[in-house]
Amino acid sequence: MTQTRNLTQGKVSEIILSFFFPMLMANLLQQIYTFADTAIVGKGLGDNALAAVGNMSSLTFLIIGFSLGMANGFSIIIAHNYGAKDYAALRKAIASSIKLSAVITVILTAFGVVFLREIMVLMQTPDLILNESLSYGYIIFGGLVATIAYNVCSGILRALGDSRTPFISIMISTVVNIVLNCVFIFGLGTGVEGAAIATVISQAISAIVCYAKIRKIEIIRLSREDFRRDRKMNSELLRNGLPMACMNSITAVGCIVVQYFVNGLGVAYTSAYSACSRYLNLFMLPASTAGLTISSFTSQNYGAGEYARIKEGLHVCLKIAFVSYVVLGSVMAFFPEFLAGIMLNEKETIGIAVQFLPICGIMLFAVDFLFVFRSCVQGMGYPFIPMCSGILEMVLRIAAVVLLIPNLEFRATAFAEVFAWSGALLMNFAAYKAMIGKKLGNDASIRKKRIRSV
């Protein structure tokens, strides 16, 4: 039991922060090695190679985001059972998650490898970078098993209140990734293939570290009985996992459409958009980590029936998101040229990136708060509202870029992000208010009935 952590007891702010910071460091390191990939590719191989790798980002998000959403959905059911102290169901949920994830891995790997070229062509990938994009993509999708294994194992650990082990695993894999990138690209001259191989190897290492920790946790020692087919458990896992997976993929479709229009503007715009996307992912990190934190916290407390603690935990995570916005949004708004110059070489591409970063920096609070409210709703076991908000994101992002790009050109991509974030935030905020109000109202009614009966 000492290898897991109960999030349903103790001071809420202390629990949230002690869970948040190790996970923040893990996610920060993960972004650092993604950032290092981009910087090493850009500086070592040039802006065209950077464009080739960046061109894969939206498609990677489509497929890997699907698996990540599925793993996060599974972890919520695991956390519910852990919070309710139903350890038999907990083991069954973990075993079923492993089996379902294996099936998903095969399907997504096959899809990514078989249809990669066709999708790249549909995205208007410039001929100048098409072959490099394909070389990078085939390796990433061929090694998808490593990424999914890490997502599943880290999701299990977070559901059990352990955010330290994922941090340790990512710390190790980040060092490995940066070293291998330098060896492959600068030492062996492998091109973008080297960056892809380094990513797959480092993900495999992080998965192994997390799996080693899982094997040591006594209450989840799995037996053959746990792996027996359980339709009810499979249905529950898929009911929660599929909507979250679809939400990520639906959002990614909107990003692919934006990438289509960006590619149509030329390679310089593709390079600039790649750099901007990396910064956006990096600067969203504290808020997205606050979202993962409130998801695990909410899941355990929802399973235990501690609804007031959920509300208190959400307020703590919103404060984290606000501080993140003030600091990082300001950097994007006031120092865009400095940021662009770190990854890009040409003055033209730097100038293009400068059009994007300040707009998103000013409105970064919308996506920061979205992460928190959406994850809280998911943690309460209501995945369909976030999925619907993903559809809304996609519609708003596509509509904005289609309508605005003729007049605003590249700046339209920034406004597309802002509109998508704002619409999804309003939907999840309304859903949270309705759901938490209902749960707290029910609790109050029960307490009144008990008082009257006494």
Please give the radius of gyration in angstroms.
22 Å
H/E element order: HHHHHHHHHHHHHHHHH
Instruction: Indicate the proportion of strand residues.
Output: under 5%
What count of domains describes the coordinates? 1
Q: Which structural class do you get from the secondary structure elements?
A: mainly alpha
Describe the model:
There is one protein chain. The chain has 454 residues and is an all-alpha fold. It has one domain. Helix content is 86%, strand content 0%. It is built from 17 helices and no strands. Helix 1 runs antiparallel to helix 11, helix 7 runs antiparallel to helix 8 and helix 14 packs parallel to helix 17. The radius of gyration is 22 Å and the shape is globular. The two termini are 37 Å apart. 56% of the residues are buried. The C terminus is likely disordered.
Highlighted features:
454 residues, disordered C terminus
Task: Please outline what is shown here.
By secondary structure, the chain is mostly helical.
Topology, element by element:
Elements: H1 12-45, H2 47-54, H3 57-83, H4 87-122, H5 127-142, H6 144-159, H7 164-187, H8 192-214, H9 231-265, H10 267-283, H11 285-304, H12 307-334, H13 336-343, H14 347-362, H15 364-379, H16 384-408, H17 411-453
